[in-house]
Design a protein that fits this description.
This protein is α+β, with helices and mostly antiparallel strands. The chain has helices at residues 2-17, 19-38, 58-70, 78-95, 103-116, 119-140, 148-228, 233-259, 280-289, 306-326, 388-398; strands at residues 40-41, 50-51, 294-298, 333-340, 343-350, 402-407, 413-420.
Length: 441
Amino acid sequence: MTTLSSGFARARRWLRDHPLAFDATLAFCTLVAMICSSFTDPGDGHGPPAFGARTPELFSVLLMTLTAAALVLRRRRPMQVLAVTAALAAVEYVLMDPSAPVVMSTVIALYTVASRTDRPTTWRVGLLTMGGLTAAAMVFGSTPWYSQENFGVFAWTGLASAAGDAVRSRRAFVDAIRERAERAERTREEEARRRVAEERLRIARDLHDVVAHHIALVNVQAGVAAHVMDKRPDQAKEALAHVRDASRSALNELRVTVGLLRQQGDPEAPTEPAPGLAVLGELVTTFRNAGLPVEVACADRDRLPAAVDLAAYRVIQEALTNVRKHAGAGARAEVSVVRVGATAEVTVLDNGRGSAGRRPGTGPAGGTGPDGGGPGGPGDGQAGGGHGLVGMRERVTALGGALTAGPRYGGGFRVHAILPVEARTGEPDRPGTAGGTGLRR
C-alpha cells in the first residue's frame, strides 16, 4: 500500500510539473470515453443502456477526434478551445442523427475557462454555452425536446461552470492565505531585526557609560600618581588605590552588561541588580576621590521605577564624567534629583570654564554642549566624536522624557533631564523630543 501511494504521488507530481503531458493524457482519455459512449444506445428509459447497439458515423469520429485534440491546448488558449469544441458539438447535433457525445469535450473546455477567468466571465460564457448547446440538442436532436438527454446537456455544462468557479475561488483563497503567511513571516523577521538593533543599541549605551566613566577616573588618578610619585609617594599610593577601585568597578559592571549576551542556560549568569540612585553616594565618592567636589541633593531616590532609576543614574554618571574631563581645574558640580508631580527631574550643574580653545554655544540645537561635547566642553558629544549626550538623550527619550543641555549664563554647563515616573520603555522615539523641555504626550 505504501509503495502504491508513493508511486501515485510521484506520478501526480510529474504530471503537475508537465502540464502539456497531462492535457494530452486527458484529451486521449476523453476521446476514448466519447468513442465508447457513441457505441451505447441509452434505450427508451425502461431498460439498461445497450453497448454495441449502434455504430458511430465516420464524421462523428472525426468530430470527436478534433474536439479531443483541441483539449491539448486548453490551458494556453481556453476561450478558443471552448469556442471550437462548442461549435463542433453544435455541428454534431445539427448534422448527425443520432448524435455522438462530442459535448464531453465542451464540458471540459468550459470547466477550464471557469477555473481560469473571473466570475462575471464564467457567468456570461457559461450561460451562452449552456443555452446554445441545449437549444441545439432540443431543436435538431432525434429525441423529443423534453428528453433526459437534452436536459443532461444543460446539467453537465452548468456543473462544469460551477465546478470551475469553485476551483478558481479555492485557488485564490489558498493563494491569499499563503501571501498572508509570507507577509506575516516577513513582518516577524523585521520585528526580530528591529528588536536586535534596539538591544544592541542599549548594550552599546551601557558599555559606553561604564567605560567612559571609569576610564576617565583611571586616567585622572594615573596622572596624579605619575605627577607626585617622586615627591609624595603616599599620595601616589592613594591615587593608585583609586585606580584599582575604579578598574575593579569597571570590570564588575562590564561583566554584568556582557552577561546579557549569554545564551539561555549558560552557567554563571549575572544576578547583580542594575545600578541606580541607591548607590549614587558611591558614584559621587569616586568623583570626589578624583578631585571633583560634588554636592548632592537627592529626594525619594528609592521610590522611582527601575527603568527611571537606572536612566537617572546613568545621566548623572555621564554628566559628572564630562565635567571631570572638560570643565577644567577648580570646577565644582551640583547634582539634584527631585520629584515634580508625575515626573522626576535630574539636574547636573558645574561652574567650569572648560579647556583651552573651547567655543561656547556652537553645539547643535536640542541639547548638545559647546562644540557638541558633553557638559563643559568638547570631546564627548556629537561634534567631538563621542556618544555621551547621544546616549543620555536616547535613554531619556526612550522613557518618554526630555533632555536639555547647554552652557549656563555666567559660565559653566547644565544638564537637565525630565523623566516620567510611569516609564514607557517600549515606545519609539519621536523626532524633536530630545531637545525639548517637556514630556512627550
